[in-house]
Sequence to fold (198 residues):
Amino acid sequence: MDIHSGPVDNFKPTLSPAEYAYPVQLFLAKGALVLKPNYRGSAGYGAAFRRLNVRNLGFGEMSDVMSGIDHLIAEGIVDQNRLAVMGSSWGGYIASFLVTHTNRFTAASESSGISDLIAEYVNTDNTPLLPRYLHATPWEDPEIYAKASPITTVKQAKTPMLIQHGMNDKRVPPANAYELYRGLKDKGQWSRRSHDSV
Fold:
């Protein structure tokens, strides 16, 4: 599963020799099937479709992505025990959201993704983006920001994930990567023995 950035972006039915973030052609050459869905909020399907993830960030996209996977499984095209997800920027946010809401993936990779929508709001150079989709700032509706943040449900994650981020990224600052990494690492390190030794 390759998830596009945006959210108002889209995949076209072409394969570029120079893929944006991931070497999709190499995966195809090794026999992988790569699904590149245009989830709700994507461009190219009209204004009403672009608005379907308003106040529904993460959950709407997850529903569309997983229905695509379920269709391929039902058709016998993919093995449900060998699923992987990758995405960059908004696609990285959705990849992280999936990993913290479902254990159906064997592996995951996120690049420049958002892990905490409140941290993103206060650190990004694109502050208007999240209030446009959530119809509130974090101070007006902290609950919706928490609900849509992968970090809120990081303790549910079981999928191994590669986290990649640029240190000078001003659109999705690297604090997102550090927070996701710390949440996943703490979850993996937490045990009764380490707790007792404090």
Summary: Residues 2-196 form a domain with the Rossmann fold fold (CATH 3.40.50.1820). The beta strands are 2-3, 84-88, 107-111, 161-164. The first helix runs from residue 24 to 29. The longest strand covers residues 84-88.
